[in-house]
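FORM 7B: Structural annotation worksheet

SECTION A. Query
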Amino acid sequence: MMTALRRYFSKLAVWLPLVLDILRVYWKSVVIFVADRIWAWLLDSEGWRQYNAEGGSAAARLSVALVVK
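SECTION B. Predicted structure
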């Protein structure tokens, strides 16, 4: 049991700073992406098909533009 916990926390110690650093740099894109996914989830299925047929949302394209800059 202790070995498994040590392994878990050692992996967490490696990955957590990396994830937090990425979130610190790209937090705006992450917020926009999550908001876009929630909005898409709230749409009904017919509206979602039309939404995708039109090339996705402006928020998703904006998040890509923010990451590229």
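SECTION C. Observations
The chain has a mean pLDDT of 74. Residues 5 and 25 are 30 Å apart (CA to CA).

SECTION D. Sign-off
Analyst initials: ____
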